Each structure stands twice: as structure tokens, then as C-alpha cells.
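step 4 of 6: structure.
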Amino acid sequence: MAIDDLTLVKRSRDGDQTAFKLLVERYQRKVYSVALGMVRDREEARDIAQEAFAKVYKYLDHFKGDSSFYTWLYRITVNICIDFLRRHRSHKGEHVELDETQAMDSAEANIGALGSKLGTNPQKSLLRKELAAKIEEALQEVPEKHRAILLLREIEGMSYDDLARTLDIPKGTVMSRLFHARAKVQKVLSNYLELDESKSGIGSE
Amino acid sequence: MLLNPVCRTFISKLSPFIDGELRAAERVQVESHLAGCADCTRLVAGLRAESALIRDGLELLAADADLRDFSASVMARIAPARPPLFERWGVSLRELFTYRRGMMVSLAGAAAAMLVFASVLLRSGTPDGYASATMAVQAVSTDPEAHVAPVVMSGEKGNAIIWLVSHKHVIEDTEPGQGNQVEDVGKEARPDQGKTKMNQDRPRGGEL
């Protein structure tokens, strides 16, 4: 049976580097995925993921066992990503942050189309690689804080409670940001699918 | 797409619905609404498809990455943060000598001076050689071939200092014998210092 995170954290804190290496190996791919979804650059994502683990190790003594290790790890990862994006914003243009208080139904027009375009088995409808690239692109249209929630939800399958803890926001905010993020991604993907309908041959459900 | 007012009350719940994050009562409400509403059923299908797409797409993107040496790189990155204690001292000393050489050299000089001063202070109570309280003779022997004879000076507590005196005044001949004797005698009482004293102040037989 795998050793639980907290035990590995305690061992790492006592100087057992092998224990920390196990933690790294346990989370590296998901942390990298989150970073990649956030910054959309493989090298930067790799560097950010490594920095996140290094930072976690550095502050291991400050980790209180009252939250789970992985929420702490992802919080650090997301913060590094957001810092990175802010530093590089001038190169990529500024996103307009969505208003948190915006009524949810204003985004209603964006959702729904994807289901009819793709059906329930999207993998068969399109080349997966091409779609993956498109998703990466669509994610960039989502404001970074919303994107972080969407990534953590889809990659790590985090519960709303853990999302709230990880990002230090109320659960209601998690819910609304996630909804807006999904609506935005749907819109981008739907537009892409409509444009490509003739050549990809999909959307004939 | 415009939804009717009833659907509008449900739309914000569809995202948590597909995530399984609704309370039981709300979930039942949504399910019963979906049973009779094609529009909202389509929205739910859209959300589920998107969720699956994102999950699949991100997995695919990350799968391309070669992370075999990832953990090793992380460990290399954190290793300098907590090196063993003696290594950290070594590094900080080296850095001090590199970047603050002047200060460190004078500090090292001061420390060396303190050491010499302290050792002089400590030894002043018990001088070497004559009447040293730390000297204890265990055995005395002569080498008949060496033409030497011991001269013994006894201390009040039974300690003794022994000179080996050559009768022939031929130092070259007696030197090895003297050395051996001194070594034997001096084992208890700082052989090096004893030897130096012997060489420097080698007495001549007639004067004793």
C-alpha cells in the first residue's frame, strides 16, 4: 500500500530526501499539467512545476497538517503560475477579468452547443491531438483565476471544498468561476468546431 | 439560445450538478427538471462533453512531456538548500575568506596569537625539563658500547632528569646512543621537547 502524503511529509521534514522524492513523483505529472494549462509553454511549465516542489520543500516546516498536502502544493503551483503570467503579461496582452457578481445566466448562450456538435464520444469525432491543442488555446481565453479552478477540477478532480481551500476563496466563488470558465471554453471550442465543420466532418449529430 | 425563466433558475446548478457537488435535495430538483426539459438536458450533455474533452486533452498534452528526470532535477534543486552541517560551515568559511579576506586573515591571526598566549599561560605553572612535575622515570639503562654514563638529577617528589654524558667528547660517535636513551627516558615526559633541550644545551661532562 502506498504511504500517505502526511507520513511522507513528516519523513521529509526529518531530512529523509527519499520520502520527498516519492511525493514529487506522486504529483509531478499533475502539477506539470496544471502549470502547462496555466502558462501554455512546456519549458516554463516544467520550470514552474520544479519551482513549486522546491518551494514546498523549503517551507516544509511551515506546513500545518490541518489541510491536505496536495491543496498546499497546488496553491503554491497556482500562485507561481499567476506571478509568472503577471510578469509576462505585457507580451501576451491583458485578459479582462470577469466580474464575480455577474449573473450566471449571462453565459448561458455559450454552453450547450458543444454537446450537439460532439456528441458524447468526442474522442472519435476529431483527431485527439488537434483537439488537445485547441483546448490549450481555448483555456488561454479564460481569465487566469478561473482557469486555475477549471484545471484543478479537471486534472486533479478536486472537490469544491478543496478548491476553496486551495485558492482561499469562498465555495460560492468556486462555483461561479467554474461555471464561467466552462462557458468560455465551450464558446471557443464551439466556434472552432463550427469553422472546421466542413473539413473535420463533425457536428452531424 | 434563450432559456425560459424556469430553466434560468437551474442553469447555475448544472455545473455543480455534473461535478456531483449539489446537496441531495438540489440534485433531486435538477434531475426532475432535466427529465422534462430537453434544453437543459442538452446543456448538461454539453458540460459533460467539455469536461471530458478538457480532461482528455490535458492528459494528452502532459503525456507528451518526458518527466523521467523530473524528480532528480527537483532533488538537485533542493539539495543545496539543506547541505550537511559541516558542509555549510565549510562553504560559509570559504565565502568569508573569499569575500572578506582581510577581516578573516586578521581574525585568524588574532586567534593564533590567542592560542600561543594561552599555551604559554598554561605551561608557565609546570615548566618542562628541570623539576617538571609531569616527569616520571620508569627505567634507566645504559649502552656499554656508547661510552656514556647517565647523570641523574632527582626531584623532591621522586622525579628525575637524566643527562647522558660522553666521556670522550666525541659527539659524532655518541649521538645515536644518546638519541635512543633520550627517547626511552622521555616517553613519559614530552620526548620532542626533551630532545630539543638536550641538543641545544648539551652539557659537557666536566661542567656537571
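step 5 of 6: annotate
 - Residues 171-195 of chain A form the longest helix (25 residues).
 - The CA atoms of residues 16 and 143 of chain A lie 39 Å apart.
step 6 of 6: archive
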